[in-house]
Design a protein that fits this description.
Elements lengths: L1 H5 L1 H4 L54 E6 L9 E6 L15 E2 L5 E11 L10 E9 L5 E10 L5 E8 L6 E9 L8 E11 L2 H4 L31 H9 L7 E7 L1 H4 L5 H10 L6 E7 L5 H15 L3 E4 L5 H14 L3 E5 L23 H10 L3 E3 L1 H11 L16 H12 L16 E5 L6 E3 L3 E2 L6 E3 L3 E9 L1 E8 L5 E6 L2 E2 L6 E3 L3 E2 L12 H4 L11 E2 L6 E7 L5 E6 L3 E7 L4 E2 L5 E3 L15 E8 L4 E3 L5 E8 L5 E9 L5 E9 L7
C-alpha cells in the first residue's frame, strides 16, 4: 500500500482535470489572463496561442518523463507549435499551476478551437496515437467543476477541433487540456498543438469561426447519407418543437443534455446535431449541448448522472445513446420522467464487431441492446425512439458496407457513422401529425394577472410587457401542481425585494432538496500497475454514481469514507455527524434516514481501498427572496425545484416601499410522480 500512497501527491489533483481523463497520458492546460481576453484583434484570450513567442510556457504536465516544449519541427502555422511527449507508463494527469488560469464571470458561453496532430509510427491504427482536447472549468479557489470535450484525433495530419462551451455558473477559471493517449506507452510518441483560440460569444461569432466545421466523408465511395423521414418522427417532441419555433420569453438557450457511455461521447459535442436542427429551425434560440459520458457505462449507472447533473439543470431535451439491460433503461426513463419535464430521445445502437453473428437483422438482440424491448419502453414512457440501427443497416446493405467500415475500433462508431446517427436524431426535431399532446402539459405558464392568482394590496399594470407591479404592502398567491416553479419578472435599478413562501412556510423551510454530483477525493487509490483494468480506471469511475435522499433532510456536506478494502464505509454529515456504517455491496440507509445508497449505483466497488473518500452536498433548491434590483430587463428567477410531486402553494410577500414587477409563473410538472 505504501507504494500507492507515494503516488498520491501526484494523484491529489487528478480529480480536478475531469471525470474521464485516461490515467495513461500527460495532461496539459494553457490559458490566458483576464486582460488577454480582449487583447487580440480577433478576441483571442489565450496567451501565446501560436507559440511564436519564445520563453517560459504556461503549460504543466503530470509526469517527470513528459516533455513539453516549443518546437519548430511541425508548426501548423507560423514558425512553431507545442510538442507534448510522454513515454512513461506511470504518467498521471496533472493540472496547470495557478498563473495559467483565467478569471471569468460565470454563466458565459465561449468558443474554443485548436489544431492538433499526433506524430508516431502507429498513428491512425486503432488504439494508438490519439489525443484528446478539452476545456476545463474551476471555481475561483481551484476546485474542479467540469470539462467539455473539444475533440479527439488519431490523425498524423493537422486536425482542427472546435466547440462552443458553456461556463458553469460557479466557474471562475477556464483552460485548455491536452491528453495524449495510447494503449502501448512505448509507441505513444508525441502530440503537437497549435493555434489555440478561446473567446467569449458573440466575439468569436463576429470572426466567423463557429461555422468552419468540416463534415466527415462517407466510406468506400458510398453516397452521402440522407436521413429518411418517417411518419412518426417527432411524435413525442412537440414541446421542444414549440420552443424551437417560438423561442423563450425571456430569451434563453435551449438546453440538450446527452448522457451515456463512450458511444455517446463518439457522437461529438453537438455541433452536427445543432447544425442540422438549425437548418430546420433557422430562427431557433441558441442551442447548448452538454454531456456526461464514461467508458463502458450502462444505462443503470447513468441514473446517478440523470439525478445529480441532468435534473439539476432542468434541460429541454435529454439524449440517451447507450447500452445496457432493458430494466436498466426503464429505471433511467423513470428517473428522467420523475425529475424533469424534458423531451427524451433514445437511439438504437450502431453495429459493433461483436454483433456479427446476428448481422444484418436490426431487430436482433445483442449484449448491448434489445431493440424490440427498447421500442416498447419508449412507447410506454412517451419517449422519442431514434431507429438508428434500422437506418444504418439499410445504408450499409445498399452500399455493400461491412460493419468495420463504420467503426474506428471494435465497438466505437466512426466519424461518418456519428454523422449518420446525428442526422437520424435531428430528424426527430420535427412537428409531426402524429404528435402526442401531454395531458396535463409538463410546462405551463400562469400570468400574474390571471384569475387563479390571488392578490392583496394594490397592483397596477407595469410599464413594460404584461407585468403587474406594486410598491407594497402587497402579496400574490398561486396554487400549482408539480415539482417546481420559476418567476418571470422585471429588474429595475431601484426595485425592491419579495419574500417567497412555499406551502404556507418561508421558502428556506420548504421540502425541496437535491444532492450534488458525488465527487471522489483526488487522493483515492489507483493501482497503475495492476493487470486488472478496473484498478487502473480513473477515480471517477470507481465510486457511487448516485445516492437517494430519504427523510429528515438537513442541508449539509456529506462524506463517504472507506474503512476497509472490502467495501465497508462510514457516512458522516457536516451537521448530523456520524450517521451509520455500511458496505458498498449491500443497501444502506443512514441512521437518521437522510441518505440512501443503492449498491447498483456504486461502480467498481471492489477497487476501493481503505482511506478512499467521496463527498457531496444536499442543498435546499429554493430562492428565499427575489431581489428585483439591477439593470432593467425581463428575467427569470428559479424559485423552487425538487418539491415532492403534488399540489403546492406559492406566495410572494412584498413589504412597503419595495417596487416589484411580476409577469408570470412557469410551472414544471414531470410526467411521473417522484418515487
Amino acid at each position: 500500500m505504501s507504494s500507492n500512497r507515494n503516488l498520491r501527491f501526484v494523484q491529489k489533483r487528478c480529480l480536478h482535470i475531469g471525470w474521464l481523463v485516461m490515467i495513461f497520458g500527460v495532461v496539459l492546460i494553457a490559458v490566458g489572463n483576464t486582460a488577454s481576453l480582449t487583447q487580440t484583434a480577433d478576441g483571442n484570450g489565450i496567451f501565446n496561442p501560436g507559440f511564436e513567442k519564445a520563453g517560459p510556457l504556461r503549460w504543466s504536465a503530470g509526469s517527470t518523463a513528459a516533455t513539453i516544449e516549443r518546437s519548430a519541427t511541425l508548426p501548423h502555422s507560423g514558425d512553431a507549435s507545442l510538442r507534448v511527449a510522454d513515454q512513461s507508463p506511470d504518467a498521471v494527469a496533472f493540472v496547470a499551476s495557478e498563473p495559467n488560469r483565467v478569471l471569468l464571470q460565470g454563466g458565459g458561453r465561449f468558443y474554443a478551437e485548436a489544431w492538433v496532430r499526433v506524430d508516431n509510427a502507429a498513428a491512425g491504427r486503432t488504439g494508438y496515437g490519439s489525443a484528446s482536447l478539452d476545456v476545463v472549468f474551476y471555481t475561483a479557489d481551484g476546485k474542479y467543476l467540469s470539462r467539455e470535450n473539444v475533440g479527439t484525433t488519431s490523425s498524423a495530419k493537422w486536425t482542427r477541433h472546435s466547440n462552443v462551451v458553456t461556463l458553469p455558473y460557479e466557474a471562475a477559471l477556464i483552460g485548455f487540456r491536452v491528453t495524449p493517449v495510447d494503449n502501448v506507452p512505448s509507441l505513444r510518441g508525441a502530440v503537437f498543438v497549435d493555434d489555440l483560440y478561446l473567446a467569449p460569444l458573440p466575439v468569436a461569432e463576429r470572426h466567423d469561426r463557429v461555422n468552419l466545421i468540416s463534415a466527415p466523408q462517407p466510406p468506400k465511395g458510398a453516397p452521402e447519407y440522407v436521413a429518411p423521414p418517417r411518419p412518426a418522427d417527432g411524435k413525442f417532441m412537440s414541446q421542444t418543437v414549440n420552443k424551437l419555433e417560438n423561442g423563450f420569453d425571456p430569451p434563453r438557450p435551449l438546453v440538450i443534455w446527452a448522457i451515456g457511455s463512450s458511444f455517446t461521447d463518439f457522437l461529438g459535442n453537438g455541433e452536427q446535431l445543432i447544425t442540422a436542427i438549425r437548418k430546420r429551425f433557422p430562427n431557433a434560440p441558441p442551442i447548448v449541448y452538454k454531456k456526461m459520458v464514461g467508458g463502458s457505462t450502462p444505462w443503470h449507472l447513468t441514473r446517478g448522472w440523470a439525478r445529480h447533473l441532468v435534473a439539476a439543470d432542468q434541460p429541454d431535451v435529454v439524449l440517451v445513446y447507450n447500452f445496457g439491460s432493458t430494466s436498466g433503461l426503464e429505471k433511467l426513463l423513470i428517473e428522467l420522467r420523475s425529475r424533469t419535464t424534458a423531451d427524451i430521445l433514445v437511439g438504437t445502437l450502431h453495429w459493433c464487431r461483436g454483433h456479427q453473428p446476428v448481422w444484418p437483422d436490426p431487430e436482433a438482440a445483442t449484449r448491448h441492446l434489445d431493440p424490440p424491448a427498447v421500442r416498447e419502453l419508449c412507447a410506454r414512457y412517451q419517449v422519442e425512439l431514434v431507429e438508428s440501427r434500422r437506418e444504418i443497416t439499410r445504408y450499409m446493405l445498399d452500399n455493400s458496407l461491412e460493419i468495420s467500415d463504420l467503426l474506428v475500433d471494435s465497438v466505437h462508431q466512426s466519424p461518418y457513422a456519428a454523422h449518420i446517427i446525428n442526422a437520424n436524431i435531428a430528424r426527430h426535431f420535427y412537428r409531426s401529425n402524429a404528435a402526442v399532446d401531454h395531458l396535463p402539459p409538463r410546462e405551463t405558464r400562469i400570468a400574474a394577472n390571471a384569475e387563479q392568482v390571488a392578490r392583496t394590496g394594490k397592483w397596477n399594470s407595469a410599464e413594460r410587457g404584461a407585468a403587474i407591479q406594486t410598491t407594497g404592502p402587497a402579496s400574490l398567491e398561486v396554487e400549482f401542481t408539480g415539482t417546481g416553479v420559476d418567476l418571470i419578472g422585471w429588474r429595475k435599478p431601484d426595485a425592491g425585494v419579495a419574500r417567497v413562501w412555499i406551502d404556507g412556510k418561508p421558502a428556506d423551510m420548504a421540502k425541496a432538496f437535491c444532492a450534488t454530483y458525488i465527487q471522489p477525493d483526488a487522493d483515492n487509490y489507483i493501482d497503475l500497475h495492476s493487470t486488472d483494468v478496473d484498478f487502473r480506471r480513473h477515480i471517477s469511475d470507481r465510486c457511487p454514481h448516485g445516492i437517494s435522499l430519504g427523510q429528515n433532510q438537513r442541508p449539509q456536506t456529506w462524506s463517504i469514507d472507506m474503512t476497509s478494502d472490502a467495501g465497508d464505509y462510514l457516512v458522516t454529515g457536516s451537521v448530523t455527524g456520524a450517521d451509520g456504517k455500511g458496505n458498498a455491496f449491500r443497501p444502506f440507509t443512514s441512521t437518521s434516514g437522510q441518505i440512501i445508497i443503492d449498491p447498483e449505483l456504486w461502480r467498481l466497488a471492489k477497487t476501493n481501498r481503505s482511506g478512499d473518500k467521496f463527498t457531496f452536498e444536499v442543498i435546499r433548491n429554493v430562492l428565499p427572496q427575489v431581489d428585483f434590483a439591477g439593470r432593467e430587463q425581463k428575467v427569470r428567477f428559479r424559485l423552487v425545484h425538487d418539491l415532492p410531486h403534488g399540489k403546492h402553494t406559492l406566495k410572494l410577500e412584498v413589504e412597503p416601499g419595495n417596487e416589484v414587477s411580476i409577469e408570470a409563473f412557469d410551472v414544471f410538472r414531470p410526467l411521473l410522480k417522484t418515487s
